[in-house]
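OP here, attaching both records as promised.
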Amino acid sequence: MEEVRNPMKNLPTPKIYEQEYTYMPWGILISAVLDIIKARAPLGGGVIDLMCGTGYLLGEIKKSRSDLILEGIDKDNGFIHYAQKKHPTIPFRIANVLSWSPAGKYDLVLCTGALHHLPYADQIPFLEKIPACLTRDGFAILADTYIDDYSSGQERKQAAAKLGCEYLLATIENDAPKKITQAAVDILCNDVMGFEFKTSIEKMRPAFKRLFSKVEIKKTWPKSATAYGDYYCICRN
């Protein structure tokens, strides 16, 4: 077997990562999540963003809901350093969500565009931690990009290629600069080669329904009737 010499494509720099919101479809997803938070987060509620990346989402929340008590965690030192420097009034800390234990309960738990960074075997154990983090009336917003359902490794690669090509085309159609287009190409490569771990919404749906009593699932992209795309799930105990 020929050795694969091109390993996982590295994540873009925090600055490039944030520019993706403008040109890639998942910017639509984040906008939808922000609208939900603005309308539904309880006054003065506690909010934690798990695998918060650059802190972009928390920064946007603070602009319109300054009453909320915000917190972010991520295991990437560079992203946390960037987040803390850009949003000095929001507490960020380095932590691996798989070993993280919350100090208390939250009115809102967020995880956006991050679940697919966890190996498949770790995704459900991570989700199983969330119900215990919520207050009685709290809720979680779990948002990610999903591929078509699959039943074999070959089908998974094909589904990842299909999604990746559509994401790349949408990015190009939005007149993205070269660095953002390259990031879309890298996403496709990482997904197909199995360096990242996108799954299907159908594979996750049973876990959502088992862990939460109320689950609202909506797709934000594409508008056509596809199984693949960007989804958010609003989950309550």
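Record two, same layout:
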Amino acid sequence: MIRIDADIDIDVADRDKFLSKINHVVARIDREDGYEKHNTGVYFQDIPRNPLDNIATIDHRDAEDLGYFKVDFLNVHFYKDIKSEEHLDSLLDKEPMWELLQHEEFVSKLFHINNHFELVNKLKPTSVEELAMILAIIRPSKSHLKNKEWNAIKKEVWLEPRDGYFFKRSHAFSYAMAIVAQMNLLTEKYS
């Protein structure tokens, strides 16, 4: 098999509805006390699987080493309110009202940062780049930056760590743009 070294995440409004329409095998995570299904990962290859639960019989990390390619499908529920590609473009092209991020009730509705109001309120992002950095520092390998100021965060946030889960810059910017779209969608809804 050919090894594909890539991390593919696809955002959908309803992953279960989407996956019900295509043939796939659910990725597996081995734990000390057994295994469980991967929250987001699936395979479109003919990977060995348990026919009773359609879960791969190989842990996703081992499967990658064997050349199997996992694709993660993530629920981004606010996409259901996007009317068209043009509507999405208009939400992305509009500068959001950054000051809304200082209101806990508003932040609680936002994808990925809804449980991080204290950090968002402390750093008060005013750009997509700053929002992306917040997304990066809420991951374990960059959490030591939470108590730093922007200048210190900017110097270190995109450096790849030796270990631990982290967001690559491209991931963080993509999700920051999704949050911008959601912010603008929410203000559009309440205008």
